[in-house]
Amino acid sequence: MITVLLAAVFFAAGLYLTMRGGDGFVDAAARLAEASGIPRFVVGATLVSLCTTAPELTVSLLATIRGCTELAVGNAVGSAACNTGLILGIAALLAPAAFHAREAKTKGGIMIAAAILLGCFAADHQFSAREAPGLLALLFAFLALNLQGAAKGSQHHAASPLSPQERVHTILQFIIGALSVILGAKLMVDNGVILARMLGVPESIIGLTLVALGTSLPELMTALAAARKHEGALSAGNIVGANIINLTLVLPVCVAAGGGTLPVAAEVFLRDLPFTITLMGIALLPPMFSGRLRRWQGAALLTCYGVYIYQLAQVGMPSFAFLQ
């Protein structure tokens, strides 16, 4: 009983840290964008994304080092599906974003290309060191585009310079907010797993739901905070950037840590990647022409992701009966 109460307390503390950290995180990122004149989409796709993907990188890397290599691949792909279907779907419903169609074409195109390229590599049910440079090339292209966009944005957007004291305060707020989001997410995942096991939920279901959602909590909380503050472009940029980093950086790092090869389960190639690519198409193809992420896309993303989760639950049902 004491263990259950402690797990519940730490879970609640993680939720509080993540929510409060997300608020400060978004405020600081928006203030940095205004001060530099860099477009919010670019800030969200780089600075915010690098911080919010830390849980995915940490979980996948630790899983690889401990020999759970299939979990590393599943976490990266599952987080991309969760980011796009659930988080971007919620963001689109709450705060439809407007941004340059060119941003959607370039960054969104890189994101979809990364998922398709990973699908090609996964056809033989493994991901090797020979294939890692292909994904890293897309990452470098993404970073180069963002640096170019930042340079152009600072020329065409009026900056609102911060005083030295405000600059230090904003940077500290950004760092503390990011750390709070990451720590809160870890507390929620660890103690959520403890609670689920005590309630008799099988570990297969825990891995398919809590781990994928848990490592995506920073993106979720950042998206909710951005929606409350009408920073939809920042949220959309964060999701796109996080997905690109998940698919092009996390897996090559895990390949290096795993000795040069990562096995890829057949289900990842046949089910998870096709669903992920479909979700990305729903999210980014219309904005490539209209420059807007609309509410109907949010509804479509949530519906498609719901079908995906239902299929995962159906697969896990037999093991649930067995473990009871």
Structure, explained:
- This protein is an all-alpha fold and 324 residues long.
- It has 13 helices and two strands, in the order H-H-H-H-H-E-H-H-H-H-H-E-H-H-H.
- Helix 2 (40-52) runs parallel beside helix 10 (232-257) and helix 11 runs antiparallel to helix 13.
- The two termini are 21 Å apart.
Task: Give the gist of this structure.
This protein is mainly alpha-helical and 324 residues long. It is 83% helix and 2% strand. The radius of gyration is 19 Å and the shape is globular.
Keywords:
324 residues, mainly alpha, two-stranded antiparallel ribbon
Structural class: mainly alpha
Put simply, the count of helices is 13
Strand arrangement within the widest β-sheet reads 1-2
Q: How many E-type strands? A: 2
Helix content: over 70%
Report the uncertain regions.
Answer: 317-324
Main sheet makeup: 2 strands, antiparallel
Strand share of the residues?
Answer: under 5%
Q: Tell me the span between the first and last alpha carbons.
A: 21 Å
What is the 3D shape?
A: globular
Order of secondary-structure elements? HHHHHEHHHHHEHHH
Mean pLDDT: 79
- Radius of gyration, taken over Cα atoms and rounded to an integer in Å: 19 Å
